[in-house]
Structures are given as C-alpha cells and as structure tokens.
Amino acid sequence: YLGYFDVYKESGSRFSATAGASLTDRVRVGLATEMSVRNYETDYRDDPEVDAPAMLEDPSSFETILTANVGLWQDWSLLLDVRNISYTNQVREMVVTADSVSVSYDDEAFFAPYVALVYSPRENVEVRVGYGVNPTSYADTPVEGRGNGRERWLSEYLWEHSCHGVLDAEEALEDARTIGVMAVITF
Fold first, then answer.
1. Is-contact 65 33, C-beta < 8 A?
2. How many CA within 13 A on the CB side of residue 15?
3. pLDDT tens, N- to C-terminus, the chain (187 residues)
C-alpha cells in the first residue's frame, strides 16, 4: 500500500422539506425532514497488479424534527423540539495495515429532545428555561437566533474530541443532560 494512493470519486444528494400548521390560535406544530446520501465510485484502478482498495459502502442519513409550540396561559407557552436521526452504512472504524484495509460500518439511530417553558410578557422580551441541547443558536446571529444549535453543538464536540466520529458525537448529543436559562430583550 505504500506505492500508490487510493482515489475515490464521491457524489452526494440531499433532499429536505419543512411544513408547519396552526392547529388552533394557541397550538402550532411543525415538521422538518432531511435525507442525505453519498455515493462512492471505486471501480477503477490504474494498475491491475495492485489489490483493489476496500470498497466503501454508500452512507446515508435520515433526520426528522417535530416541533410544537403550545400556549399554556397568558404570556406562557411550552416549546417542544424532538429530533431523530438514523444513519445507514456509517463508517465506525477503518483499520489500515501494511497489506490490507478493513472497514466496519454501523447502522444507528439517535433521539434528542428539547423542551422549554417560555415566558414572553411583551413581543420584545422572552425568558426560557429548557431541558436538552437548545436547537436554536444565538451566537453570531440575529436576535431571534438560527435553528442550528444542535449542529453547532455537534461541531464543537467533534472539534474538542478529534479522535471521535459523527456517531460518537450523536451519541453524546443523545446523552446530553442540559438545563439552560436564556433571556432575550430586543431594542
């Protein structure tokens, strides 16, 4: 394996959709879903004398996020945000020796709920007490935040734990027990 480099061509596709509806004047629900598939082409070699490289399986993921905002009483509401993601053919471990490459794959699913009690006495004031990793990120964003809180959490986990992979990060997100208090006042 020291005399050449393995070359893989990769292509990918992604499909995402969102929908939302107000069931009553106090209940709003939403659904977001995303499917991602990567394809590897490994059926070519420059030198037929050399053993073929380890075949890579085509990995995919399917993510679903269900949300609900339920008005409890005046100025108080309950926010629910539940995420489920499943991975197929995700590389768990790749072992390279002098004469072989072995790859192990996993098919796993992960669940990450978030629930928050929200107090908003005025349009420009919100206080939130939540449990779970906040799906909304407020760092370097407009005051209303962006819906990438879990993605930022996963990225930070992988940065801080560079020897871990995406399945390890998803498992840590699923196991995260976080209580957060947040207040936003806009001017």
1. yes
2. 4
3. 444 455 567 788 889 898 999 998 899 999 999 888 887 776 544 444 455 555 667 788 899 999 999 998 889 999 999 999 998 877 767 676 666 667 777 788 899 999 999 998 888 888 889 999 888 877 766 666 677 788 888 888 889 888 788 888 888 988 988 898 988 877 7
CA angle 156/64/39 to nearest 5° reads 75
pTM > 0.70: yes or no: yes
Concatenated DSSP letters for 99-151? S-EEEEEEEEEEEEEEEEEEEEEETTEEEEEEES--SSB-TTS-TT-BS-HHH
Q: Torsion-angle region of residue 140: left (phi > 0), alpha (psi -120 to 50) or beta?
A: left
Token pair for 64: 């679903």
